[in-house]
Every structure is written in structure tokens, then in C-alpha cells.
Amino acid sequence: MDIVLKSKIAREIKDYSAIALGLACYAFGWVTFMLPYQISTGGVPGISALIYYVTGIEIQVSYFAINTIFMAFALKILGPKFCIKTLYAIFMLTFFLWLFQWLLKDDAGNLPLLLGEGQEFMACVVGASLLGLGIGFVFIHDGSTGGTDIIAWIVNKYKDVSLGRLIMYADIFIIASCYFVFHDWKRVLFGFCVLFIMSAVIDYVVNSNRQSVQFLIFSKKHEMIADTINNKFHRGVTLLDGTGWYSKQSIKVVVVLAKKNQSTEIFRMVRDIDENAFISQSNVVGVYGRGFDKLKVKG
């Protein structure tokens, strides 16, 4: 089998496994903190939660039914390429929502209040954090949970309206609908708190994953350092010609772009090879290309 094909298969397996892990975290947040304390938020899970509070129909049933309708339109309008990972995410989230409820419900069919009575706000904070962590993990592996995202993509295809604005309008409408279920503005405020905290956590997770650093390494053992970075860290290396102005001697400068979480290992590797090496590390705003973020340019 071709090496490139093997690499693509391994990357896909990693993505689908990571999406499943993120969705498990998301479902756990819903079942353990949101549903027992009757808290809702935006998106299709928010709609499904409202249906659950009113009718008792389990959240995964209405979630799957609503997304099935949305996906039927998406397949026709957006094409199958858009839908593959979304379909996978819908099935996996439906499964995890069912699984955690099955594990946690007591004999009477009630979910436990893990934080105790009257702890709706703490449940809101902890639950939203888990939701944001899970969705952030899904996003960094190019996944989607479907729902209102699908409607936004469909509308965006025909109308020049931003996706973020469409999703925001949908979420505001869904959260505001809590008032007609509970007749309590506190529940509406909880919903907006969840949305705010979840968005902040998603941004943190996604942006942390994209942080990269640049190394300038000055060393007489530049060849060994460059080979080790290539072979061990699988990062490209560029050698620049430099001249020390004090010594007037020529020297090679090793230039490396790497993920921030690889910084410590690279420092240790350079120290092991050459204790006298001079290293400069700086954060970079964005790195685009093979091994980093995809270059996306409009027009």
C-alpha cells in the first residue's frame, strides 16, 4: 500500500476516533449536568432538551429525528462530501446520549443531581465547559454535529449572510423559547450563560490546538539537530547561512516551525546534542501549509 494512502487512512482513523471522544464528552455534559437541572441552550440538542422537559421524550430520539430531516435536505443541496462526518457525528452523539442516560438513570427513570439541590448555576458552568470541550475537540478534527449548522450552510449557499450570524439568531430564538416552557426568565439566562461559556471554551480549545512556534537554533552540530527534528518530530527544517559579527565566523542557522506542544521536547533534544547551542523561540500568529493549518483564502 502506498505510503501516502496509509498516512491518509491513519489520519482519518485518528479524526474519527477523536470526534467520538469529543462527542462522548459533550453527551456526558448534557446527561450529567444539563438535563437533571433542566437547563437548555441553542442548537438541535437545545430543541431536543425542551421537548424532553415538556413531553418526557428522551433527548436522543428527537435529536436524531430532527437531524434526519435536516440531513435529507443537506444531502440534496450540499452533496455527500459535506455529510459524511456529520452523519457519523449524529449517530455517535445519539448513541452516547442514550448510553449515559442508561448508565445513570435510577430505577424510577430519574437522572441524579450530582451537585445537589439548588445548584443550577454550577451545573450550568460545569456542563457548558464539558459541552465546549467536546465540541472544540470535534471541530479541530473537522467534524460537525449537524443541526442548525446544516440550515445555516444551506441558507448561506443561496444568500450572502454569514454563518456565524445565522447560527447566533437560531440559538437566541431557541434559548428564548425556554420561557414558554418554564415561565421563568432565570432559565433563559442560564441558557445564555451556557452559550457564552461553551463558545469561550470552544475558542480556547480550537486556538490552543493551532498555536505554533518558530525556532532559530545556532549550533555547530546543526546537521545532527536538523536530522533529528526531521526524523523524530517530522517537521521541516531550513538551514540559513549566517555570520557571527563578533567572531566573524560563518555559522548555519536551523529554522524550524513546530506546534507549541512540541517545544519542550525540541529544547531537550537540542540540549542533549549541543549544550552550547543558542536558541531563539517565538510565537507565530499562523502557520499554513502541510503539517499545519489549511490555507483558506476567499476569492
Give unreliable regions as ranges: none
Helix content: 55-70%
Mean pLDDT: 81
The DSSP helix count reads: 11
Shape: elongated
How much of the sequence lies in strands comes to 5-15%
Strand order of the largest sheet: 2-3-1-4
Task: Spell out the helices and strands N to C.
Answer: HHHHHHHHHEHEEHE
Radius of gyration: 24 Å
Distance between the termini: 37 Å
The major β-sheet equals: 4 strands, antiparallel
Kindly state the number of beta strands.
4
Q: Helix- and strand-based class?
A: alpha+beta
Give an overview in words.
It is a single chain. The protein is of the alpha+beta class and 299 residues long. Helix content is 63%, strand content 10%. The chain is built from eleven helices and four strands. The chain has helices spanning 3-34, 43-55, 59-77, 80-104, 120-140, 148-158, 163-176, 178-182, 185-210, 222-232, 263-273; strands at 212-218, 237-243, 250-259, 278-284. Helix 1 packs antiparallel against helix 5. The longest helix is centred in the first third of the chain and has 32 residues, at 3-34. The model has no long low-confidence stretch (mean pLDDT 81).
